[in-house]
Structures are given as C-alpha cells and as structure tokens.
Write a structure and sequence with these properties.
This protein has helices spanning about 10-25, 45-55, 70-75, 80-85, 120-130, 155-170, 180-185, 205-220, 225-230, 240-250, and strands at about 35-40, 60-65, 85-90, 105-110, 130-140, 145-150, 190-200, 255-265. It is an alpha/beta fold and about 270 residues long. The protein has one domain (about 10-265): Rossmann fold (3-Layer(aba) Sandwich), CATH 3.40.50.150. The protein binds S-adenosylmethionine. S-adenosylmethionine (SAM) binds near residues 42, 112 and 115.
C-alpha cells in the first residue's frame, strides 16, 4: 500500500462528488482563458477537468495520471470530450511528462502533492512545458487546518491516525503549507498564495446543505479507512465511533467545521 485513498469504484465516485462540492470554494480565484490549452497533472478520474471545461471553456485540457485505472475512469467520465479532441489523457508520472517545452497556456494540480515527499521535480517539469507567461494554479491540503466544534474525540483521534499514515507512506498531509516555497524552488514567480477556507457554521442555515457538507467530509475522512484498518493504525470500532460523532454534529446548531486548504498561483 502506498496510496492512502484507494482506486476503488466508490473512491472514484467520491472524487467526482468532491470536485462538485468544493467547486464554489476552489474556483473563484482561478482564471483561464477560453482558448487556453491547459494541463492537469494527477487528473484522477477527470473530476476537475469537468469543472474546468464547464467554467472556462478552454480549447483543450490534457490530463496526466500515473494510475491507469484512474485514466480509464476519466475516459468513461468524459467520452464525448475525448472523442471531440477537447480532452486528451496520458499515463505518466508528473516528473517526466511526454510533452515538448513551452506548449501549454496554463496548468493546475489539485490534491496530488500530499502523496509525495518532494513535489519540486513535478513543479519544475510542469514549468518546462508551460509557455513563458503561462499560468499555474495548485491547491493542496493542510490537514492541520481542521477545526471541529464541539470537540469530537473519535474524529480527532482518527484524523491524527490518518495524517500519521500519510507521513508513513512518504506523503505530506500539510503539503499546502509548502506550496509557495516549493514553487520558488522550482523557479516560478508567485502571484498569490492564499488559504481556501471550507467552513460550516451558523451562517450555513439550510439543513440539506449542512447535512451534505458533513456527509462529504465524513466520506473524505473515510477515504483512508481501509488503509488505516489494514495498517493497524485504527481499531475496528473506530469508524463507527467517527460516524456517530458526525451524526451528532449534523443535529447540533452550534457545530463549527472548518478546513483550510492552500492555493498558489504562479507564472512562468
Ligand atoms: C486525490 S487524487 C486527485 C485527483 C484530481 N486532481 C481531483 O482533484 O479529483 C490524486 C491523483 O494523483 C495521482 N498521482 C499521485 N502521484 C502522482 C504522480 N507522481 N504523477 C502523476 N499522478 C500522480 C493519483 O494516481 C491520483 O489519481
């Protein structure tokens, strides 16, 4: 096991729903042009490609992922776009891209660097294939940025185990905090580096929206449950305890659930 999530069908479906859920938080600070050719490294099942196509109508999106089963699912999720040549998919690691220098107008990476010990070789490689002046957005996790009220000990303990496992697998559960430094090390010019708060508190008044918000987060946490159980880092009763706490949070009007990711925008 080297990947904390799995490549199972439910996890692939979760990535699609996660992208839709996070779209309103992640995208307002992103701008690509309608004629751009855009590269996504770590495109998974094409979830962000669908958002990008909808929002920016770019000329072309090229998705790269090292996992063939993800690309097969991306193809199934974007059949018409691949057929029409608006989307192209490649199996490759991000640090060895099968493209010439200076060919893309833009690039983005979402939720990939948490799985790596050193993202700089990938950032450098993306810089190589970007045109001079090309725009590069990256959004990554900061798992230390999770705040839950009322205090929920099972969620807290589970999250600590999740992050310990990510470290053990060679990843970085706070990769977002390192984005500005890594982009500078790769020779890019930073235009912005901002927190992306994803928050539920009393401002969210719609009961359906509150339930959906917490369901999405519960599923996000459980995307690591099989790996955590397999590695013995949680005991079998823990997922049930975590679910019980999420259920309580969903009925409590005082609940605050906040997660801050980080987003960097840089130019070649
Ligand atoms: C959590 S998924 C995110 C997928 C997509 N960016 C999204 O937001 O829905 C991370 C993806 O990165 C891919 N990945 C991880 N390391 C990679 C690398 N070094 N090169 C290319 N893809 C990689 C994994 O196979 C996986 O599909």
């Amino acid at each position: 096991m080297s990947y904390i999530h799995s490549f199972s069908a439910p996890e692939q479906q979760r990535l699609l729903e996660q992208a839709e859920f996070l779209e309103k938080y992640l995208y307002p600070t992103i701008a690509f042009g309608p004629d751009d050719s855009i590269l996504e490294v770590g495109c998974g099942v094409g979830a962000q490609i669908r958002c990008m196509l909808r929002r920016f109508k770019p000329a072309m999106i090229t998705g790269v992922d090292q996992e063939v089963s993800q690309l097969e699912k991306a193809l199934a999720n974007l059949p018409d776009e691949v057929q029409a040549g608006t989307v192209d998919l490649f199996a490759s690691t991000g640090d060895d891209l099968p493209f010439d220098d200076d060919i893309f107008d833009g690039a983005y990476v979402f939720f990939v660097f948490e799985h790596l010990s050193d993202p700089v070789p990938i950032i450098r490689e993306i810089k190589r294939v970007l045109k001079p002046g090309g725009r590069f957005y990256c959004t990554e996790v900061v798992n230390q940025g999770l705040y839950v009220f009322p205090y929920s000990p099972a969620i807290s303990g589970y999250w600590t185990a999740f992050n310990n496992l990510q470290h053990k697998l060679g990843g970085n559960p706070d990769a977002g905090m390192h984005l500005a430094s890594c982009f500078i090390d790769a020779g890019l010019s930073i235009r912005s580096f901002i927190p992306v708060p994803v928050v539920m508190d009393k401002r969210m008044t719609d009961a359906v929206e509150r339930k959906h918000f917490l369901d999405m987060w519960e599923r996000c946490l459980f995307s690591g449950a099989s790996a955590l159980l397999e590695s013995g880092m949680i005991s079998p009763e823990v997922p049930e305890q975590v679910s019980t706490e999420f259920e309580k949070l969903s009925h409590n009007p005082e609940t605050i659930f906040q997660y801050d990711a980080r987003q960097v925008f840089a130019v070649k």
